[in-house]
Amino acid sequence: MNNLYGIKTNDFSIAHLNVRGTVRKIDKVKTLLSQCQFKVLCLSETFLKENIPNSYFEIAVEVAREDISGKNSGGLLCYIKSCVSCEKLSGIDDQSIVRV
User: Fold this and answer.
1) Is residue 95 part of a domain?
2) Does residue 3 surpass a pLDDT of 60?
3) For the whole prediction, is pTM greater than 0.90?
């Protein structure tokens, strides 16, 4: 998890990591969130499936995710602090777009 890409503007910071599997790295993610104070942290290639509940990933911030189905790669998990206003987009039927 050393390829962290982040942007900070004024008091808003967002970062992205390609984690290639989230379950084994959740402790590192928790440490990163507590030390870096990102408003939004997006994790790609999470390899998550529906059988893993959100409660496993909750760290005092909102969790939005798009799981994989029928394949062994992909997935997106975003940690969003409560001070950030957001909503999941609806009406997008293009399966090539991952949305949270």
Assistant:
1) no
2) no
3) no
**How far, in Å, CA of 18 to CA of 15, rounded?**
10
Per-residue tokens: 48: 């998550």
Q: Is residue 11 part of a domain?
A: yes
**Which DSSP string do the residues of the chain spell out, in sequence order?**
----EEEEETTEEEEEEE-S-SGGGHHHHHHHHHHH--SEEEEE-----TTS-GGGT-SSSEEEEE---SSSS--EEEEE-TTS------S---TT----
Specify if 94 maps to a domain.
no
Give a yes or no: residue 100 inside a domain: no
Residue written as tokens 């909750």?
58
The mean pLDDT value for 50-67 works out to: 78
**Domain containing 31 — which CATH number?**
3.30.110
